[in-house]
């Protein structure tokens, strides 16, 4: 099975040329898998900022990092990703969004179009040239569909002289599978 | 700039795990760049079959291969890709399609929906599990748009238990850029 999260990880790893000593952001901690991936990728000299509004998500992420002995290189922030600019000053190499709700958690607590677009604008502002922003969106449920449309229109509006934007879908599924948006800054 | 041909090459290289000793097919020789890429990828023990109906395309491809000293591992076939099954018996690891017309050549000679779909069916039949078929389509001109729709519907109809199909578009362009379809066999 193609996993859209793995495709996103590959693109991030390629954009970082194997990573090392750079800043990365997990805009949606969730279960912590993206943070763990980024923490490995940036290496001992790098740092990851991870955002989530739910303590449960940050706790799960902290547990994963502890297991992998990677706690030192990650800052967990209990705040929505629309506030990332308050916490980060330097240019970042990668920002990873995995929208929707915490798997196995409270489904009424999910990302929303408004805050996601604010966060995306901040992410692009923080992004260094050559860096990448990836967004996985879930059109399979009603609010996810609205959010997916908002992300699509936002991505489509980005100037092609400054950003390359690709949109990947898995087209032979019966249900509406997650979609991957990737924005690279020139 | 993101180049869709480079994205296709990356996917093929990943599917072949660095390649080596396998069979690959360039379904549309064109200027020969895909054949050259595949010839390098399959290595000394592998082989590439390259199809084109135009002698001009095969000549350009032959010249590229000669320059790279890779002539030995490629069979150039002057035939439409809808006849690939007549020439290949063993399972192949990758089949690469770059639709449309020969760059700089006669634009009235282009791939067509009917023969492309026949070729795609043969390609999937020849494909070994784990192998990949990539198709770059050009919806920017009228016939290319029809062909793109045909490929899209064909890809969407493939059974998700047997094939993973991804569709990649570059969404922040003013014109209609090429699109990449990738089919992996489980």
Question: Would you give an account of this structure?
Answer:
The structure is a homodimer of 186-residue chains. Chain A is α/β, with parallel strands linked by helices. The first copy, chain A, is 37% helix and 26% strand. Chain A contains six helices and seven strands. In chain A, strands 3-2-1-4-5-7-6 form a seven-stranded mixed sheet, with helices on both faces. In chain A, a hairpin with an 8-residue loop joins strand 6 and strand 7. In chain A, helix 5 runs parallel beside helix 6. The longest helix of chain A has 16 residues. The first copy, chain A, starts with a helix and ends with a strand. The model of chain A has no long low-confidence stretch (mean pLDDT 93). At the A-B interface, helix 1, helix 6 and strand 6 of A face helix 1, helix 6 and strand 6 of B. Strand 6 of chain A pairs antiparallel with strand 6 of chain B.
The class by helix and strand makeup of chain A works out as alpha/beta
What is the terminal separation of chain A in angstroms? Answer: 32 Å
Order of helices and strands of chain A: HEHEHEHEHEHEE
Helix content of chain A: 25-40%
Oligomer: homodimer
**Structural Rg of chain A:** 15 Å
Most extensive protein-chain contact, per-chain counts: A-B, 26 and 26 residues
What spatial form of chain A do the alpha-carbon principal axes imply? globular
Spatial strand order of the main sheet of chain A: 3-2-1-4-5-7-6
Strand proportion of chain A, as a percent range, falls in: 25-35%
Overall pLDDT level of chain A: 93
Please provide the count of β strands of chain A. 7
Low-confidence stretches of chain A: none
Largest sheet data of chain A:
7 strands, mixed
């Amino acid at each position: 099975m193609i996993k859209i999260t793995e495709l996103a990880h590959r693109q991030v790893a390629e954009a970082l040329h194997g990573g090392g000593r750079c800043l990365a952001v997990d805009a949606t901690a969730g279960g912590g898998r993206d943070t763990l991936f980024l923490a490995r990728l940036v290496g001992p000299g790098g740092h990851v900022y991870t955002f989530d509004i739910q303590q449960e998500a940050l706790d799960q992420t902290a547990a994963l990092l502890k297991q992998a002995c990677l706690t030192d290189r990650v800052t967990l922030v209990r705040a929505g990703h629309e506030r990332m600019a308050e916490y980060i000053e330097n240019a970042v190499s990668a920002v990873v969004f995995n929208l929707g709700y915490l798997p196995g958690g409270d489904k009424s607590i999910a990302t929303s179009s408004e805050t996601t677009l604010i966060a995306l604008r901040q992410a692009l502002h923080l992004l260094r040239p050559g860096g990448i922003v990836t967004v996985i969106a879930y059109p399979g449920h009603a609010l996810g569909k609205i959010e997916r449309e908002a992300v699509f229109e936002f991505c489509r509006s980005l100037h092609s002289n400054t950003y390359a934007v690709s949109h990947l879908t898995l087209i032979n599924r019966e249900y509406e599978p997650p979609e991957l948006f990737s924005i690279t800054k020139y």
